Each structure stands twice: as C-alpha cells, then as structure tokens.
Amino acid sequence: MANAMSGSVDLVCVDPTRVQEVWPAVKHLIVRAILRTGLNHTADVEYDTLHGDSLLWLAWDAEARAIRAAATTVLARTDTELVCILTACGGERMRAWLPLLAGIEAYARAEGCAALRIYGRKGWARVLDGYRVEHVILQKDL
Fold it and tell me: What is the pTM of this model?
C-alpha cells in the first residue's frame, strides 16, 4: 500500500491483490457516491475494482483507526491521450481528506496521464483548486 501524508489522514492505494479484504468496509461509501450521481453502475465499478481494472483509494485516519473516505479510479485511453478518471468518491470529514487528491493526481502523472477527470456532482468544481468544468451532461427525463 502506498501512502501520501496530509495531516493525520493518509492516502492509501489498496494493493489490487488485497482489495477483496477491504471492499466490504468501504463498499457503502462508493455505492452512496455512485447513487448520488447515477453516472456509473455500482456493479460495474465494483467488478472493475475487485478485478484490478480500477484502483481503490482510501483516506485513512491513523489516529482514529478509521477510513474517512474511499474513491475509485480507472485509466482510460481516448483517441488522443491517456486520462485517469475518478469514478466514485465518498466519505465523511471532507476537509481532512480533500487535500489527498494531490496524491491521486501524482499517480496519474506518473502513469503518463494528460488529465484527471472527476465523475461527480457539479459542486465539486467549487471545492477543487485547479479544476474547471470542461464538459457538461445534459439530461431530459423521459
């Protein structure tokens, strides 16, 4: 497991060979995040994460011995570049773990990604420095 420090909360990338051990403790965080947006299917994110196609990231509070947040990422090749997509992120005490996003950005850079994309609610744009709304999803309920 890799770590990056931010106060008393660490960013932990769960070794894909150990995700099955951790998933039951964080599944509710990921599912809640996915259901809030409807941008992914929970079964797809779970399958990709449990089978090593996506990575599972934790915000670990060592002092409290508690997971404060969990996120999933996947690398995707477009026609022009490689991007890292944060497909789901959910947790509590966001101010403590939001700075840990820099660790995921560093991972994406190291993998040769041109960008980190976040699939989530519009409100993320207000709290994330350096991120902008690039595209929108327009929806008409039928």
Answer: 0.84
